[in-house]
Structures are given as structure tokens and as C-alpha cells.
Amino acid sequence: MENYDYFAVEYIFNLLCACRMSSNYDCRSLLHSIHKRGLSDFCKLKINTGYKVPKISFWIHLCQQTSLLNDGEMLYPTMFAESWFSWPLYDQMNYLFKEWIEMAKDRKTKYNRKNLLQFIATKKKLNTTQKNELTGLQALGLCSGEIISNLGMAILDNNSKILTHNSEKWRIEKERLLISFPPNWSSLWNLEKYVSPKVQGVYLLNARNFRLAVQRGALENEPKLLDIFRDELGSVIPESICKSLEAQAVIELKPGFVLEFSQPEELKRLRQVANLRSELDYVLSPRHVLINYFDGFQVINKLYRRGLLSENELITSKYVSLPNTTPGYLPNSDRSFMLLLLLVSKGLNIKLPTPPGFLARLTQEMDDQTKASAIKHSNKILKELIPSSIENDEIDNHTQTDNELIEIIQDIIDQEGSVDVVYQKPGVEGADIRHIRPLLIEKRGQRIYILAYCHDRKANRTFRLDRLKLV
Q: Is the pLDDT higher at 69 or at 32?
């Protein structure tokens, strides 16, 4: 058998994998996903060998006709696809051929398609209408021009014996999983639930891909990734692969845009990234962080591009319905009051979930005098809201070292407890007593910070360790 006998199966396999892994379902993004898998170059090769390949719309309609893809706007493989990939090649191609006939819009076209293989095999002269149908027949690999292929002859003669093939065992070389062509399509379909190919037949077994595989459910869903390896490898799975998979962290998206980290250390590590710290600022616990509702998709997309979240989390965050944020007409007095509230909340370090661009739209038609008045009144309110300071001489004279503080605070974090601290704010003469619940200990440059929930301020606050003492 020649490799191009599998072309239709391979094209459908790649199309369904692209649909399964794509977070966007428009034709352009789907074509981009297929191109990344190297299928476009393969199509050019088939054209050079006489197998004219129709547009992607042909394959989508064929997959929908054969119940391999759903009929909705969001293209996604059906449960039948997994079963179809386990069929022998003869059964797969015979099924595709019959459904291609049924795709015909009228009886005459259906008749021409049904008898086209017979006409080609007997070398009958084809009319223009019949020649136009050769595109679909060639796409299925049943002919090359007006010459019937071995695959087409097998379908015509109902002879499945010439289409038998035993797939080779998979093998691992260093950090690469190598799969010979043609593969066991059913096992490959299960594998690509978790791992995408670098190039055709090559899958990188590195930390990034393992992380994404675990995020996609490689250790929980059936069949598990290690079980797929055991079935298809001709040797024992290397112990390093098992350990690497089991050591991977997982981030789970909970309702309300809450991220749950399986390992608290990963939340600490991500908060060290400059463009992520502010977006992961509202920490609820050492393993949970709340994402701003209006920035949810953008944050999830950043984590997805880093390989830390799967397509499922990205799709979920994208299709969460957002409220209508289009502003109606407001007089300047109302706009000034809303600006006042925003300035006061900012002065108190309270992060309100304002819609993107809200402040710009709010002040767009506001004159300078109104803006100045809002700023003046906000400063006055802030002075009244900030509690009076405690004199420095009221603080315990005992000096705690950084290591002592870190050890004590880490114990409090592990116990999910709270503690009273005295904190010296920069630029303020006195110090404040705060009742806090420590959440994370972070190092930024040469300084150490404590991220904690402040019961007095009813919000998360960041405290510099060298300005903090335990009461």
C-alpha cells in the first residue's frame, strides 16, 4: 500500500484535531490551525502527484455528512469520530465513498457519483458533468485523473484484503516520541487529546508539553496518557516520563473567574512576572486568586499562550457573557461624582472592576474645573477616612529578624490563620496596627513582601517585610 492511500483519513484526522484544539471556530482560524500542523504543504504534494485537493469547505461538509463533525456553528468532533478512527481502512474509505455519494444535491449527480468508479475502471469516455465529479473522487484517493487507483479498485471489488496494514510500534528517542506512518489512528486520536505534534509523527516529551497534557486531563480522563504509551510502545515507559507527568502543576478555572492552583509555589512564581502581578493581585488564599471579571479572557489568554492553561479554559472564559458596558447620557454633576468615587477607591487601594476604557469615557466631555473639583473633594475625603496613626514609641522595642518573621508568617499561612502587625507606611510619621491574613511571601529584587488580606481595609494589601513587626 502507498502512503497516499491514507490521504483522506489523514486530512480528516488533522481537520478534526484542529477543530478539537481550536479556541476559535471561524474558517480563517481553522485554516491557520491546519496550516500549523503542516497539512497545507502536504496538500501541495498531493496536487503534484495528481491528487487534486478541494477546498476545506468540501472536507467540512463531508465530515458533517458522515457525522464526524457536528452541524453547529462551533465545529467540534462527535463521539462517533473516535469509533471511526478504529475501523480498518477499507471500512473507513467505503463509508466515506458512500456518504460522498449521498452529499449530492440531486438524483442525477448522485447517479453519476455512484457509477463513476465503474466508468473509470472500464475506461469509458466521461462527459463534462462526470469529469467535474472527479475532484471529490480524487480527494478520496480513489483515482488519479481518469485512472482508477488500487484503493478505488478495492472499493469497487469489495476486496478488503489488499488494504491491510500493521502499524509499527511507537518509540522514544531522548525527549521525542516517534510514530511511523501510517499510524494506529485510534491511538493517535487519543494521544492528541493531550499532546500536539511538533511535525508529522514527532511529539516532544518536554516539561512544557507535559504541563499542557496534564492541564488537558492526561492523568484523569480515559484513556490516560500513560495507558496510551503502554499500549503502543514496544518497550517499558521510561521512569523519568512517569515522574515528570505526575510532578506537573495544574490550574483550574472555577466559577466567577477564580483560578485554583494545585501548587502554591506556581502562584508565587507567576506573580514574579511583571505583566502578570497586577492581574493576579487579588489573592484569596495561597492557592486561589480572583481575576477581574472584565479582564478575565485577556488574563486567561496570557496564561494559555504560556502553555499553563488548555483550550477548555480559554473557550470557557471567552464565552462568558459580559454585561452591557455602553454608557448612556450622564450630566457633568453625575460624572464628577463617579470620578470622585473612583479617585477615593484608588486612594484606598480598592480595585473596582470597572469596564475597560471606563475612565476615559467618563472624563471625555468633562471640563478641567469639574475634574479639579472632584480631585479636591477626593483628597479631603481620604484624609477623613484614613485612621489616625500610632506613635512610634508604642511599638515593642524587640527587633525581629527577617528570618524569624518569615518563619512565623509561613506557619500562619500554612495554618490559614490571621495575625496583628504594626506596619510603618512610607512617608507617614506614625505606624498602623493591622489585622491581616497572610497569603503569600514574595521576593522582588532585594526586598521581601507579604501579600495579605487586611481585615481593617477589607481588601488585599502588600506589606514590605522590613517595615512590619508582629504584635
A: 69
